[in-house]
Design goal:
alpha/beta, two-stranded antiparallel sheet, 12 helices, globular
Amino acid sequence: MFNTRLGQWLNLLVCSLILLRADAIPVGITYVQNAVTKGAVCLDGSPPAYHFSPGFGSGINNWLVQIEGGGWCNNVTICLARKNTRLGSSKAMVKELSFSGILSNKQKFNPDFYNWNRIKVRYCDGSSFTGDVEAVNPATNLHFRGARVFLAIIEDLKAKGMKNAQNAILSGCSAGGLTSILNCDRFRSLMPSTTKVKCLSDAGYFINTQDVSGAKHIETFYSEVVATHGSAKNLPSSCTSRLSPGLVGALIRCFFPQYVVSQIQTPIFFVNAAYDSWQIKNILAPGVADPHGTWHYCKLDIKKCSSVQLDSMQDFRLQFLSAISAASSSLSKGLFVDSCYAHCQTEMQETWLRNDSPKLGGTTIAKAVGDWYYDRSPFQKIDCPYPCNPSCHNRIFDPQDYLE
């Protein structure tokens, strides 16, 4: 009897694991070896890389380029710390990634983009692909070449068929979402004039605001990123050209989406949580602004926030909505701003498209983005304040895995 029950339990476990993985497919890595001769390399000098799942059927000439996230390094010390990790070296990257959500090849899970050519670009430069410093200090051997990497990868994909694209999307999550904003018009300029090009930013709308101590920690941090990587010359010219010559410090504004979005000419869609968990942890209440750790448990789980902390988060939401209002100026721009405590919602099946996925006005993220891309209907919706939306998948962080 025991063996029979054990066998039934093991069969149930195996079936459950199969179901959990049914929406994900393993995709191997591709190294862009010829990029090295162009100086288009990761922080450690290794070649950039991506994972490529070919399109099929009616999607054979459609391309989705998804940029991986992973924060930024703002000085030599921090960049050295990530130089030999997957965020600084293709040598440390896994050979396979699982594709799900917007990268899924199953029509049920990704009805509008399942048969497109789907690419996940690995993130190894630490500047949202904006940096370009020619000199390499032999003492550190750090290469700040993100802008070159972006160009080299796009050229490599074009050589593999993207030059014939009928439809194309530049997308990304977190720092990759910021990449898709800052490089949206550049991506459009690199594609054939006949290609229908749009961009998608998932959790990439980082705002310039004060933290709980009253300081603008994020502005200082981004200033250091731009200075370290030599990013200024690669920020959107539609933004930098509006600033007075010589105002180098002011150029940092063009690293923030709120100062860039109104000038973006290419249609772009923004998926973002109004209580973005990364921004709450690192912009509103970073460790430097919370020396006694009073925000620690609140940042792990929004249900553990005090009434005072929730008030601060509600105020942050209002600032976020003000900052993203620039994106509602044209129906060519899409908005899906939910009231969840989340960060990145397009790559996970549970938040992209599932029976219990987050919804706004009864619409899932997948349907909103698909309708917008194919011009079936525009989509600009902003959720009511937390905790009004029962469809949210609010993040709960493990204290053992928690990093500031």
